[in-house]
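User: Can you predict the 3D structure for this chain?
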Amino acid sequence: MKYQFCSGFAGHIKNMLEQRALLGYSVYDCHRYLANFDRFCAANFPNETILTQNIVFAWCNDAKGNGGARRACEMRSFGRHLLLSGEEPYVLPPLFFVKKRPALPYICTDAELKRFFEATDSLASCAASPLLEYTVPVIFRLQYACGMRPQEVRRLRRVDIDLENGTVYIADGKHYRDRRLPVGGQVMEMCRKYDRIADTVLYNRTYFFQSPMGGAYTTAWLSGTFRKCWEKGGNGAKPDKCTPYSLRHRYATETLMRWLEEGKDMDAWIPYLSAYMGHMTFSATYYYVHLLPERLACIDAMSIPNIIPEVGANEEDI
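Assistant: Here is the predicted structure, written as structure tokens:
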């Protein structure tokens, strides 16, 4: 159930979300941030109906870490919406909150990756999560094999996966860039067997990887499970560096390194990788190129045996 807005800005927030939806934009993240803003205003500014500088600064400064920059972006959009609606809000100037330069992504080594996937295969199900031992090995292998963003793999619906033709459709991707990805034979066979097993436990699933509560798995669940397997595999605790996004980073650098070894023209091939990964600009893909010299020194091989295990005749082999 969606959050019920209750602050003095409730009507304007709902109107803004409705307009964005009618224009074809995804409102998932916007709804999440504005729900947080609504709760903040209901608790701290219960009688306010005009968006003031004090309210905007208070909410942005209440964020943790680098979250203030994202909140500022949402407040700027909300302020512009109010302005077009005939209100007199405070509209935050562009670049008022400057994002900190992100740290270099952590690129896991072959040995770390191998130990991680071995750990995913050793998790056992429990009464609260009867599909855990089947879900974890498949969800992370599918993300890694396709270079997907963590939110993309956990939000996959059953209709998004074509089990017959071996493709995955990413709907409502970042920057609204939908795309269809081919999936390797072994990983797709794991998905087929997972689907049959999940059908015996959860009836009429909407999401391919559906949580026991009935919806998609949360960001917290995916991150927590990744961290648990990472440490269980003996890779050490690197909570600030190694996250589910590390699988996507590894996919990108591994692909680029393979192309370098094959002597491909990088300028000609990078647009293909950019489209495959759903990047908005080529520069986002070129970002990985400057990581390659460091990666060449630490990577062991271009492919790791047993990352994608052989799929046997029995469904229990997942």
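The radius of gyration is 22 Å. Residues 10-84 form one domain.
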